[in-house]
Give the backbone structure.
Amino acid sequence: MAKELTSREDNYSQWYNDLVTKADLAENSAVRGCMVIKPYGYGIWERMQQALDKMFKDTGHENAYFPLFIPKSFFSKEASHVEGFAKECAVVTHYRLKNDPNGKGIVVDEDAKLEEELIVRPTSETIIWDTYRDWIQSYRDLPLLINQWANVVRWEMRTRLFLRTAEFLWQEGHTAHATKDEAIAEAEQMLRVYAEFAEEWMAVPVLRGVKSPNERFAGAVETYCIEALMQDGKALQAGTSHFLGQNFAKAFDVKFLNKENKQDFVWATSWGVSTRLMGALIMSHSDDNGLVLPPKLAPIQVVIVPIYKNDEQYELISDKATEIKKALETKGIRVKYDGRTTQKPGYKFAEWELKGVPLRLAIGPRDLENNTVEVARRDTLEKESLYQQNLEQKVANLLEQIQKNLFQKALDFRNENTFKVDNWSDFKVRIEKGGFVMAHWDGTSETEQKIKEETKATIRLIPIEGYPEEGNCIYSGKPSAQRVYFARAY
Amino acid sequence: MAKELTSREDNYSQWYNDLVTKADLAENSAVRGCMVIKPYGYGIWERMQQALDKMFKDTGHENAYFPLFIPKSFFSKEASHVEGFAKECAVVTHYRLKNDPNGKGIVVDEDAKLEEELIVRPTSETIIWDTYRDWIQSYRDLPLLINQWANVVRWEMRTRLFLRTAEFLWQEGHTAHATKDEAIAEAEQMLRVYAEFAEEWMAVPVLRGVKSPNERFAGAVETYCIEALMQDGKALQAGTSHFLGQNFAKAFDVKFLNKENKQDFVWATSWGVSTRLMGALIMSHSDDNGLVLPPKLAPIQVVIVPIYKNDEQYELISDKATEIKKALETKGIRVKYDGRTTQKPGYKFAEWELKGVPLRLAIGPRDLENNTVEVARRDTLEKESLYQQNLEQKVANLLEQIQKNLFQKALDFRNENTFKVDNWSDFKVRIEKGGFVMAHWDGTSETEQKIKEETKATIRLIPIEGYPEEGNCIYSGKPSAQRVYFARAY
């Protein structure tokens, strides 16, 4: 089973596609660029949603739901937003089909043409700020702290499962504030929430910073981001949080009476993470045997496989396995007993390895005699024999170790693949090999653009807290006050 | 505040609209027929989702996600389905916009016309069965028990918040089975799940039955349904579960190797409930003061309002309220302390009544002295003074009583408004006044259609378990073996 996976060394991109489909995470659908998220993949996404949703609520946010469709004219209202979002998108032009007069199926009814086309939302700032105008009159209505879980559509030409699809699932927070400082604090808070989620739940270490103007969200004053490093040395933007200034308030005329009894425009943020996180999760930890999941997000944390030669052994081992399953479940551990009689243990081992279950317990006749189980860790592929006594505590500890180990491994990998480079020829060589490159940059869009054209690398982020260090731009030689992170990116 | 609500007697329809908007549940958006679900309304929907999702998982179902868009040609594959669903829908014809050459905003790029139009899903049978073809080869792949939480779009001409909107949120279960009996058992099981949810969580009593052929889902062999009676005497279909036979398997060529090693078409069900349930919830319990929520679904179950004359009293009462809040929360009760100093108690009372909070606790200076609180029930509007001692248990009991009382009240109302009628003139009079009318019907679509034309009443359901009783059709006089339920409906 696992043999069918292309190895990472042979073809990283093919390995990823193989893994996503063979581990039953997702597949391409009949609709160009749109994926089907299969139950096992969706189970991981649901766990991500639950953890994030709790973090959003713990920081005072509520969920709501805004329309899927946005009138075309809304996009023209915010000048830079229209450039970024209103181009490659799904356009609804008609609201009715009719039987083909020639008897060949159904055709669009030309009499049912919309007066104004509707855009399937690529992001919801416009429709939400159009709504907020009626919700906000005075400072007493602020802050407005709202999140939405939704599907969005961006008509991407080249798509890849989870990483870039025409339709994807995400959450988008949209908050409104009375002051600039409060809005900035909110944008920064949500970046911290994302970083904490990535590191503590996904076991994916992330760098935090702000984007250069070239890479900023269309309509934002500042875009905060978290960036992770994949095993092939490419960076992946895992979440963004935008300080939108008063841009959308001005575009949609959202004013409020402030405490000084004066009319002012409202300050805004928006922030989002998407099913793209699934791609980050997969590419951070998985290996040539398949998926490797951090225990906190694994739909199944422990799988128990019986090893038997006859029905009598099967019965006895099944009883023991069921007993162990129950004991583990009392600790809140998610356990599956794979009692299928149609498959051999070797097949099951490979299957659960492919699906990334963190711990596998195997129980054979000798284990029954000795009160032991064989425990195999998915992250290290190490096996050991453990006494059944107090197994639930041992398993809980192991799961915690795996969670930490995955994070540490990914962190070590990133550290080993982060380089300081001080001249242009080294930069070009280094970027070619992958990893983050910390280099000086003169702060201009022109230089950034040139570097991108020549190396395909972009500035992934400018560190927020900053490591002030005088230097000279690797490209132009002009002075620079701090290094920024470059990488090729997904 | 509550005074602004139109009374039910004056104008039931206006009362409903007032209530939905003034209680902050939902509002119309800038997009025709699409609603914005506001945080308070969404909080109720989230609780519905959680309860249903758990019930689905407890019966062995998993969640997945299928594309928003469906190729137009898919609809033509199932003959009756196309008639029912492929007409009034949102059609995506283009995938790009461009700047208007005349400089006036953005326009559709005619060069970016899709080869085949995409329909925004009105329901997902077609795209899902097209996917299942690759997932199902043998009986070992069955049953497939999948649910999806999603948005769907049906281009309704006349829309009403929650009850009928162009876009709505729902869940749709789509299961695949090896045998007819198993599929029927699944469809019936999910109807029981829906009925249990409606009665135990929403406190809405429902009738269970099957639809007449006229009212069947387009593509189903049998449509099971639950029907509730609203306060204005109109029925509301609260959920449906369909036995689809092999119709979709045949349309999408989904075959499997059965245990006898023969190829056969797969048997199917689908079932769904939507944000329409919010309409059923509102219209079942609410009154002229506003929303009345069953405690199990109320985002806030208990609100505490301080009654004070000066800062010192405010401080003391706030401390006590916070202490009580914490004690209630240890019992898992959802509590809000409304410590706003900008609003008077009377205003707060009216606001929380409007929002349907099941219990209100008021604490004043005398309560501090006497160790009491004033407790007001939203369902009966009764007040009583309770000692603070063991308050959490008393409140928990009260919440349980309210939940039961709401169900009983709604059940009594339905019983009082269900009538047996045996002739056509009585039928016409009775239908005009509202309620369920149990009458004999000859079983033909023609008669059903005539009755609908003359009275606007439809057959809501044919009882499943049946009350066999010989009689004569109220319209045609032909023989009938059991009564069916008629009503005018939402």
Remarks:
- Chain B touches chain A through 61 residues (CB under 8 Å).
- The first helix of chain B runs from residue 12 to 22.
